[in-house]
C-alpha cells in the first residue's frame, strides 16, 4: 500500500471540504480522482502531498510515514503552473533544482534528462511564455520529475489543453506508471484520463462516492 486514508475530514471554518474519506492506494497503479467543481479533489490531493493536514482522521504514506515526513518521495503538480515565463524550460528547471533539491540527495534527475523524459528539447531557446499550453504542462511535469517521486500527484494536468496535447500527456503518463511509481490525477473530465485509469475514485460534496476499477488501454 502506498497511501492509506482513514476517515479523513477537512474543514475550512465550519465548511467540510472532505468528509470521512477512507481509501487505500496501491503501489504502481494510476488513480483518477473525479468530481464536480468543489467536490474536494484538490483538497484530497493536497492532503496526500502533505500541504494540508486533515482536520480529523489519519493519512499514512509508504506504510508508516506522514506525508510531510515523506515529501521528498512525493511529487505534486498544482493547478498553477509555477513556471517563470521569462526563463526557458531548462532555466526554469535548473532554478527549481537549485532551490529545492539538496545536492547530496542522490537519484535526482538532471534538468535536461527530465525535459527529455517529457519529450522536450532541453536546447530550446524560447522562453516558457512563448510555449503552448501542452508544452507548459509538460515542463511542469518535468519539474516534478526531477526528484524522481514514487507518488506522483497531478491536479488537473489536462486543463486548457487541446485534444492532441491531452493525448500526448496521457501516453507520457502511462510510461511513468510503474511498479515503483503510483499516479493520482484529478480531473472533472472522466474521458480524458480513462486510458490510464486503473481505478476511478469519485468524490461528491466531499464524500467518497465510489471507487471502481477502470479499463486502462495504455
Ligand atoms: N483554503 C480554503 N478555504 C476555504 N474553503 C476552501 C479552501 N480550499 C478549498 N475550499 C473549499 O472546499 C471545497 C472543495 O475544494 P477543492 O478545491 O478541493 O475542490 P475541487 O474538487 O478540487 O474543485 P475544482 O475542480 O473547482 O478545483 C470548495 O467548496 C472550496 O471552495
From TrEMBL:
One Pfam family matching this protein: ABC_tran
GO molecular function: ATP binding
Domain ABC transporter, first and last residues per copy: 3-218
Keywords: ATP-binding, Cytochrome c-type biogenesis, Nucleotide-binding, Transport
InterPro entries linked to this entry: AAA+_ATPase, ABC_transporter-like_ATP-bd, ABC_Transporter_VariousFunc, ABC_transptr_haem_export_CcmA, P-loop_NTPase
Record's protein name: Heme ABC exporter ATP-binding protein CcmA
Name of the coding gene: ccmA
Amino acid at each position: 500500500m502506498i497511501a492509506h486514508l482513514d476517515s479523513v475530514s477537512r474543514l475550512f471554518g465550519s465548511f467540510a471540504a472532505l468528509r470521512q474519506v477512507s481509501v487505500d492506494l496501491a503501489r504502481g497503479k494510476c488513480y483518477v480522482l473525479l468530481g464536480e467543481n468543489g467536490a474536494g479533489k484538490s483538497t484530497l490531493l493536497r492532503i496526500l502531498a502533505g500541504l494540508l493536514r486533515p482536520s480529523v482522521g489519519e493519512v499514512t504514506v509508504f506504510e508508516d510515514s506522514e506525508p510531510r515526513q515523506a515529501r521528498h518521495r512525493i511529487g505534486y503538480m498544482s493547478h498553477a503552473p509555477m513556471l517563470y515565463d521569462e526563463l526557458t524550460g531548462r532555466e526554469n528547471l535548473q532554478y527549481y533544482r537549485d532551490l529545492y533539491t539538496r545536492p547530496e540527495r542522490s537519484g535526482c534527475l538532471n534538468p535536461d534528462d527530465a525535459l527529455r523524459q517529457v519529450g522536450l528539447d532541453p536546447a530550446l531557446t524560447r522562453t516558457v511564455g512563448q510555449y503552448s499550453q501542452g508544452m507548459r504542462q509538460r515542463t511542469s511535469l518535468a519539474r516534478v520529475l526531477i526528484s524522481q517521486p514514487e507518488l506522483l500527484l497531478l491536479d488537473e494536468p489536462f486543463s486548457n489543453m487541446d485534444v492532441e496535447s491531452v493525448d500526448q500527456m496521457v501516453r507520457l503518463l502511462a510510461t511513468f506508471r510503474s511498479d515503483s511509481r503510483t499516479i493520482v490525477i484529478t480531473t472533472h473530465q472522466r474521458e480524458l484520463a480513462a486510458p490510464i485509469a486503473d481505478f476511478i475514485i469519485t468524490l461528491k460534496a466531499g464524500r467518497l462516492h465510489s471507487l471502481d476499477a477502470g479499463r486502462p488501454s495504455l
